[in-house]
Amino acid sequence: MTPPLVASPTPAPSGPGAGVIAPPSAPTRWVLQAADWAVDRPWLLGVAAALLLAYIAGRDLLDGWRHRRHADRARLVTVAPPPEVDPHSADALWANLHGTLTPSRRRRLLYGSPHVVWQYTWIGRQLLISIWVPGSVPQGAVEAAVRAAWPGAACTTDDHASPPIPLDVPAAVGGHLLPTAAEWLPINIDHDNDPLRALMSAGSQLKADEYACVQVLARPATARRAARARRAAGRLRDGKTSVPAINPAAPLLWLIEVFQTGSTVRSRTGSAGAAPRRDPGVERDVRAILDKTAHPLWTIGVRYAIAKNNHRGGSRPEARLRGIADAVASSFAVYAGRNRLAHRARMAQPVAVLATRRLGAGFLASTPELAVLAALPRDLAVPGLDRARAKSMPAPVAVPTGGRGMKVLGDAEVGGHAVALSVADARYHLHVVGSTGSGKTTLLVNMAVEDITAGRGTVVIDPHGDMVLDILDRLPASVAGRVVLFDPDLP
Fold this sequence. Notes:
Layout: H1 26-39, H2 43-71, E1 75-80, H3 89-101, H4 105-111, E2 116-123, E3 126-133, H5 141-149, E4 154-158, E5 171-179, H6 197-203, E6 210-220, H7 223-237, H8 250-259, H9 262-270, H10 282-293, E7 297-308, H11 318-330, E8 341-346, H12 350-356, E9 363-366, H13 367-373, E10 406-411, E11 418-422, H14 423-426, H15 440-453, H16 466-474
Antiparallel strand pairs: 1-3, 1-4, 2-3, 2-6, 5-7, 5-8, 6-7, 7-9, 10-11
Helix pairs in contact: 3-5, 3-13, 6-11, 7-10, 15-16
């Protein structure tokens, strides 16, 4: 018969130093002393808050100075789409602009990176697509990138960039579009049809006294922001959260573990349970992040505003403007994928915000994502949009540019080189072909005025009389004695 087991108490520790708690190590002692020193000085919280506010104010002042420097001598490039638009041309444009807008490391740290603004602007039913280019970008660089991406597009540059919506409109609504998930998760870029069709349809419902503008602001992302997105993929692959979580109790738990004996820590570590189950969608997210970060990355922002110029007394147009604004914002739902632009943050003064064209923190986007947000419509018929009538080509090298015995006709649209015609060739029969409003009469008027001021004999026969009046308005007073006018209406 087995005798019953009797529990015996654990023998007390014996020997020199038994029952004495070991003093903390040197690093732990320093941490405790620093904590006691900070607790005895509560005014340090006020100093820390003041330093934080000073940093925020200084950063805002620096960003404002950088934006004003880039915005000085800014220009607006209006793009007329070609009759047919290649779906992959927008990718080529933004890949080209990524290299154009990326400054050197020294200039980026001092002045920041410039940004461009792609604009869809409706003035009544008329749609204009333009690019706001800061003055720090070399002249003609963006126009060359547009023509390289869409060879048949026509670019018109305005050296004085005006606000997209008049600043004195009495009623306006607008907002920002932000991603609903983490910025490193991509939106949908695979579309069978033109993804801009919903936006074009929403803007086509404006009346004659209404305005609308959608801005896509973009600048090259910094290397730190791109590395942060890649680290997020690595953390997800390791079974962690994409962003390191901040636990307020972590310092207290660390102090508790410091004072615990090694055996207790080992028992806690050894008794850890099995690894938690992984989300089956993690691998998909990791691949999506890696695919997105494989392309050149941008920091972008999406804004929209709807305004009305005048309204009758007592009427409230905000309800209609809010409905159009919701339709414009909802048109971006076609890009919904693993991420989507569905978070709408309203703006208190949308017209003034769009006029400044200032890009803040923004969110991360790849070049293919930016190319589906800021591109030329691919549909042949777009309400209110005028396409380029003829393909712009640079003047051939053999065409004269001026000199003795030459008549300057004008400047080429591509390259800006002068185009001239010799006086001897101008005496032959010359056909000027072009559609209505293309400038045929203006060309003939300039040629006649140049011959008259140069002392060459010129005969102008105009059955309507408008061109003769234009010539007379442009002639200097010194040639009045050499001009003979035959007018059948005069007695």
